Amino acid sequence: MRNTAPIGILDSGVGGLSVLRAIQEQLPDETLLYCADSYYAPYGELEDSFIAARTLGIGRWLAEQHVKAIVIACNTATAHTLLMLRERLKMPIIGVEPGIKPAALRSRTRVAGVLATASTLKSTRFNALLTQYNRDCRFICQIGHGLVEAIEVGDISSPVIIRYLSTCIRPILDSDADTLVLGCTHYSFLLDVLRYITSERLHIIDTHKAIASQLVQQLTKQQLLVNADISTIHGSMMLSSALLRLVSTGDASQLTGIARKLVGIHVNAEHVKIASEPL
Ligand code: DGL
User: Fold this and answer.
1) Which tens digits make up the pLDDT trace of 169-184?
2) What fold characterizes domain 2-96+208-271?
3) Is the pTM of this model over 0.85?
4) Where do the DSSP E strands lie in the chain?
5) Ligand 1 pocket list (CB less than 6 A)
6) Which of 36, 172, 211, 251 sits most deeply, having the most CB atoms within 10 A of its CB?
7) Ligand 1 pocket, mutate which of 47, 122, 184, 211 (most atoms under 8 A from CB)
8) Architecture of domain 100-205 in CATH?
9) How far apart, in whole angstroms, are the C-alpha atoms of residue 50 and residue 41?
10) Could you tell me the CA-to-CA distances from 18 to 43, 71, 76, 104, 182 in Å, in that order?
11) Domain with CATH 3.40.50.1860 in the chain
């Protein structure tokens, strides 16, 4: 595996761009290849086996592009596919899951809310995680109905999304909760409206920075970080287009526009066709 190879990042759509941003901040000299499965987004209410087949197919495609590691920047895909992808591809694979542990460690009221997709909340992996920490901390789990669809078209602050979000988190606000876990990478883009709706009453736990730190640890341990000579050649400010490729299985121009709007990335996305992989 070459140290200069790109790091692959995947999500159902634009949610993983929040993770991509955190990775760029911690690893500014790495080349990134981001794949949005926009044709099939959102994943949150699809069949588990379909989500797994899509994620495995994208993982395979990223491996064919010679990435040196893959970040599944999607809680829903991680819940159904992390172990399978690790078995099939011989490279570091990092997943993302809701920050239940930090919430249980931090909450003073011992009540925390979790906002995630229907698929994540009903997954075996998530429920096993919950069982480890819900003995002395109560978790109020809510599905973020309508949120991913809105964020996919770049809506992160309209009255419509404020209404959806207010409805989803009402049971959490009506409880004693002092902490809110964001269990979907798309929701990171709602931090401002969340602070507004909750009047900053809830401490928000978002795992995108922790995922980037895990990636740094893995690449360091496996001696896969891009070497110092290459970093000097690129310089740290010339990154955005030279060191980043964005691809979408859906409308590439839409991904170009949303990436610009949400994370200020100026790169023209490409359309790609990626087959699902049988389980
Ligand atoms: N960003 C995703 C997650 O973290 C996927 C949401 C969806 O496609 O429904 O779960």
Assistant:
1) 999 999 999 999 999 9
2) Rossmann fold (3.40.50)
3) yes
4) 7-11, 32-36, 69-72, 93-94, 111-116, 138-143, 179-183, 203-205, 244-248, 270-271
5) 11-13, 15, 41-44, 74-76, 117, 120, 148, 184-186
6) 36
7) 184
8) 3-Layer(aba) Sandwich (3.40)
9) 12
10) 17, 12, 15, 24, 12
11) 2-96+208-271, 100-205
Apex 160 CA angle, 246 and 35, nearest 5: 15
Q: What angle do CA 263, 14, 224 make, to 5 degrees?
A: 80
Ligand 1 centroid – CA 233 distance (Å): 36
- Alpha-carbon 262 to chain mean position: 14
Task: Determine which residue's CA is closest to atom 9 belonging to ligand 1.
Answer: 44
Give the distance from CA 16 to its chain's centroid: 4
What pLDDT, in 10s, does the model give residues 82-125? 999 999 999 999 999 999 999 999 999 999 999 999 999 999 99
